[in-house]
Design goal:
Blueprint lengths: L13 E5 L3 E7 L6 H8 L14 H12 L4 E8 L2 E9 L16 E8 L11 H16 L4 E4 L6 H9 L3 E8 L2 E2 L4 E2 L2 E9 H4 L9
Parallel strand pairs: 5-6
Antiparallel strand pairs: 1-2, 2-3, 3-4, 4-5, 6-10, 7-10, 8-9
Amino acid sequence: MRTEPYAVDRDAVHEQLLDGFGTVRILPVDPHADLDVIHGWVSGERARFWGMNGLSRQQVLETYLHLDSLDTHHAFLAVKDGEPAALFQSYEPGADRVSECYDVRDGDIGVHLLIAPAGAGGGRPGWSSALLTAFTTYLLIGLDRRRVVVEPDARNTKAIDRLIRQGFVPESLIVLPEIDLPEVYLPEKPAQLAFLTRERAFAGGFPPRR
């Protein structure tokens, strides 16, 4: 049983205190150190749209080791008040299959998000919104990007509704093409394309840079 905050000795790329929620630290994924947490999340039925149900621990490890080797795709853990709370992955849209489905702009950055199962004190109203706020602040302010791109599975209406409530503007329904390479396989996916601009995300004022 863990007796200290998760990964307390690791440097965060972003740390944010959110009023009424707590402190969120965003850490680059360590494929070996974070394997238990990640495998436990992605193998659950609630994560079926993440596309890794049924993968063994070794397969999940190999997936994130491959991701860790890329310059265009990155994986992060969100740790809320010392407990892992979400997994999110950023990517350069121009280096991703989504680029075949829309005109990529300078300053775009893509993201995939998996909120962890609710634990003690979790599952309350505003939980997902607060984590999304931390992620978008890191991407739009910390990385100085202009627009966040998402393409959740079109059948995942719960995630789409959550993103719209967060300020994302839905655009076209797209079909992401199949990727079949030795190091990665992704099946064709119907998806909802949506965008969040920096101006829309921070209409009430930009947070201070850290």
